[in-house]
Design goal:
Strand order of the largest sheet: 3-2-1-8-7-6-5-4
Strand content: 5-15%
Radius of gyration: 17 Å
Mean pLDDT: 96
Largest sheet: 8 strands, parallel
Structural class: alpha/beta
Bound molecules: phosphoenolpyruvate
Low-confidence stretches: none
Length: 256
Amino acid sequence: MRRKILAANWKMNKRSSELSEYFETFKKHSPTLKPSSEIVFAVPYVFLEKSAQLLAQTTFKAAAQNVHWEKDGAFTGEISLPMIKEMGVKTTLVGHSERRQFFGETDQMVGRKMSACEKEGVFAILCVGETLEQRDQGITNVVVEEQILGALAHITANYAALLAIAYEPVWAIGTGRSATSEMAQEVHQFIRSILMSRFGEKAANQIPILYGGSMKPANAKELLAQPDVDGGLVGGASLSAKDFADLAKILGESIS
Ligand code: PEP
C-alpha cells in the first residue's frame, strides 16, 4: 500500500517561543497515525533543531523547506543536507513554487538538489505546478512534465522509496482557491504516468503524490478521496495546530 503523507509548510512564519505549544496542541488533537501514514512539519531553518527535539518521541517529523545541493562551500545564506542531517532531520521540500518564483530556482537547480537528496539519503517532497497563465493556455501537463523530468533527470528508481511529489497549482497557493478534486486527480494521474515511464510501474506506484494549494479541513475529504491523491502539502491551514490536526484526522479517515 502506498504511504499517505500530510506535510505542513510553515513558510516564513511563527517564532521559536510558539513551537512547544503548537506541537502540544497538535498532539492533543491529532489521531493515532495509521502505520502507512506520515506527518511532517517543514519549518524555517532556525526552528529545525528545536522542532526535531520536540518531535523526537513522536511519529511526526521535522523537515526543511529548502536545501543547497553542495555539502559545503562559499554559498552565503544557504544550508546543506549534511547540516540538516546533523540535526536529526532527513526530510526536505524541494522546488517549492515560491523558491522558483522569488529566488530564481530553475528546473536544473531543482534537479541538482534532488540528486543531492538521493546521494545523502534524504526524503524529498518535490513540488511542481503550473501558473494560472499556463493553465489558461492549456499547457498544465507540458509544464508539470518538464518540471518533473528536469528534477528527476539523474534520479534512480532505487530512490523512489524516498521520494514524494507535491502537485501545487501556483494559482491555488495561499489564494483560498483550491483545485477541484477532479482537476487534482487528472493532474495526479498524469504525474503517475510520467513516473511510470521514468521508473517503471512498481516504483511509480510507491511514490506518494500530494496535493497542495489552499487545502483545509473543509475541502480535504473530497481531495483525499481521489485515487491518486496520497496526501497534502499544506501552507496556511498548517499554521493552526487544531486545523492541521483536523486535516490529520481526515487523512486517517481516507485510509481504508
Ligand atoms: C504551500 O505553501 O505549499 C501551500 C500549499 O500553501 P497554502 O496551503 O497556503 O495554499
